[in-house]
Amino acid sequence: MAKAGTGRYVDVELKHIRLRRAGRIVLRDVNWRIRPGQRWILAGANGAGKTQLLKLVAGAIWPTPGTGESRRYLWRGECRETPHEVQEEIAYVGAERQDKYERYAWDYTVRQVIGTGLHRTDIPLHPLTVADGRRIERALTALAIEDLAERNFLSLSYGERRLTLLARALASSPGLLLLDELLNGLDAAHRQRALTWLERSGRSNLPWVLATHRIEDVPASATHALVLQRGRVVYRGARARAPLARWLESKRSRGTRQVRIPKVFSARPIVRLTHASIYLDERAVLKDISLSVGAAECWVVHGPNGSGKTTLLRTLYGDHGVAVGGRIERADIKPGVPLEVFRRQVGLVAPHLQADHPQDLLVEVVVQSGCHAAIGLNAPASRADQAAARRALARFALMHLRSRRLRELSYGQMRRVLFARAWVNEPRLLLLDEPFAGVDAPTRQALQRFIQDLAARGTAIVMATHHRGEWPAGATHELELAKGRMRYGGRLRLG
């Protein structure tokens, strides 16, 4: 193993670090050293400070001044007191970077996006050389995503985007790799590609940190673990002795009760697709889909990354139109009736909403905006909207966060806010796109119970997920997609 700090890999040491954000202590007296050859798992509940700690290591934010605190970065035999001179050697992959492409409509090809990693830029600013092309090809090959090279980034599924950003990081030949919930949104095949790379990385001295909420996402190649609780380090040491099961395992058998779904379904659908095809950027994403969702039905949509799950849910919500030759029908929506009338009866939880909402919005405003199926408010909330939002915030144990701005929340906390926003009108139809991505085990259990309780009361639910264990216990129907087509659609199959 290379001597720490003398090679091309970055050695980071934090001492007595604390971080205050918006008047609130986020990290308290953190001591941590990441050495070349070490591969760390970062665990802790939503809001424990994991993402902020990764950003601090990366140099994106600065610690709050105090007594005795220090950051040291050892690289190429020299010690630096700040990350400024080594910042370009630290690669960060996380939801915020992925959301930036959606927020700013950066729709470059996958090859171009990976190329920006070579030049450490957000968007393509430099022509790619022949040597650049070879490095890009190696990154694509390392993750087995060569077939995505010429696709536009925003045409990709959530999981395909995540692997593209990992390839971007790898192409830069980083000295330290920080991975914030890397495996969120990946289907089985893409998840295995990422895990395979993580396992192979053990052959080198490249240090990395992987933040995760799932015990099954911990690769065997991980050597160390750090666990945060309310901003404090409660474990730091060898992975073999780490109490990861306590923080990452979801004890579903204890926390999720079985519920009985009503056996009588509505003959009148809430929303129906007939021979529907959906085109995005002149490419057919969904082809000849027929689907009818009625009250009390609980649909699970599954299939590989890129099969069209997100597009289907956004089409049901009204974000995408149906091509000529197909039809979409919505209950009580006649020609001339605004689509917003239907949307106010529908709750939506989806990753793109985290990118769509301005980060300066208050939590309570985000939930209030759900009353109007809007992003933000055009006018002050009415008393009725305020009351509905308070009920939703209380229902999801979010009252203590109501005055915080979105930028102050963890990814998992923001997901709970989106659930409150979706439920604020007590919708007749709930659309859920990978609803448990980025949430800790206790929150996942609570949200699963919430979904099952709604289904038991007759709310129609359509949920897309890659995890079989997340299917609601009372699911009634399933839809399997592959390459934009239906492989199966109907009553839930046994086994």
Topology:
Blueprint: E1 11-21, E2 24-34, E3 39-44, H1 50-58, E4 70-75, E5 78-80, E6 90-93, H2 95-103, H3 110-119, H4 130-142, H5 158-171, E7 176-180, H6 188-200, E8 208-211, E9 224-229, E10 232-238, H7 244-248, H8 252-255, E11 269-280, E12 283-294, E13 298-302, H9 309-317, E14 327-330, H10 339-343, E15 346-349, H11 351-356, H12 363-369, H13 383-395, H14 411-423, E16 429-433, H15 441-456, E17 460-464, E18 477-482, E19 485-491
Parallel strand pairs: 3-8, 3-9, 6-7, 7-8, 13-17, 13-18, 15-16, 16-17
Antiparallel strand pairs: 1-2, 1-4, 4-5, 9-10, 11-12, 11-14, 18-19
Helix pairs in contact: 3-4, 3-5, 4-5, 12-13, 12-14, 13-14
Q: Could you explain the architecture of this structure?
A:
The chain has helices at 50-58, 95-103, 110-119, 130-142, 158-171, 188-200, 244-248, 252-255, 309-317, 339-343, 351-356, 363-369, 383-395, 411-423, 441-456; strands spanning 11-21, 24-34, 39-44, 70-75, 78-80, 90-93, 176-180, 208-211, 224-229, 232-238, 269-280, 283-294, 298-302, 327-330, 346-349, 429-433, 460-464, 477-482, 485-491. The chain has 495 residues and is of the alpha/beta class. It folds into two domains: 11-248, 3-Layer(aba) Sandwich (Rossmann fold); 254-491, P-loop containing nucleotide triphosphate hydrolases (Rossmann fold, 3-Layer(aba) Sandwich). It is globular and about 70 Å long. The chain contains 15 helices and 19 strands. Helix 4 (130-142) crosses helix 5 and helix 12 (363-369) crosses helix 13. It is 29% helix and 25% strand.
